[in-house]
Write a structure and sequence with these properties.
Blueprint (H helix, E strand, L loop, with lengths): L1 H25 L1 E6 L4 E10 L3 E6 L2 E6 L3 E7 L15 E11 L12 E13 L2 E11 L7 E12 L5 E15 L6 E5 L1 E12 L5 E18 L7 E18 L1
Antiparallel strand pairs: 1-2, 1-5, 2-3, 3-4, 6-7, 6-14, 7-8, 8-9, 9-10, 10-12, 11-13, 12-13, 13-14
Amino acid sequence: MKNIIVAFLLLAVLSASAQENESIDKKMVKVHLKDGSIISGALQSWTYQEEVIIITQGVTLKFPNDKVRRVVEVDNFSKVKEPIIHQDKGIYYTAKAQILSGNEGNRAHNRIGYGLTASAGYQWNQYLGAGIGTGYRQLIWDTGEKMIPIFAEVKGFLSNKAVRPFYNMEIGYSFGLTDEELSLIKSKGGLLLYPSFGISFGRQKMKYSFDIGYLFQDAELTYGSNFDDRVRTVQDIKYQRLTLRFGMSF
């Protein structure tokens, strides 16, 4: 009988110990470091006056006691936010899709345009990065007025929060494309200037963005006639388009 009681007590102690360890594993904490950093994660172990071990995003982090100011338990798991990862130094890549507003008048009839661009560059710090890019733009929907832009860009961020405003400036040259089916027999591009301002959001390395800008684009288009091959109409155009873009970057 004594053996049964001892075995039962031993089992109860082991079970309580396992439950205690499980509850520790599930505790979410914020580790406040002496350098001012705050790291959130699941508490794995906390050895008094030695070290604190947590797991955050699948990575095990160890903090010696002399680096820790305090450890605060978070009651609600949902209160723990993922750390913000900003790559404010190094190579970046972006891809953006845009809608161009239409112009009034008989020529454009308020028809919108669209475009796709991709760029790569180097970010020196939060406020300054530079790169080059290219893409495709149809300046008026269902027409042959299409351009291939080649541009340099300068960009920067105005805060280091999860949602932060940014600026972007593109300057370059666009090459015109012809479309004989639509009687556009010659298309000469020109200089482009594209300032924009928007917000970037996301806590991980991959970021998303919305921005509003204004595209200035020079072009010279030559249209033929369906009735007389000798007839040519040359149009010297300065496109001015309000734009809305959605982008991804990493």
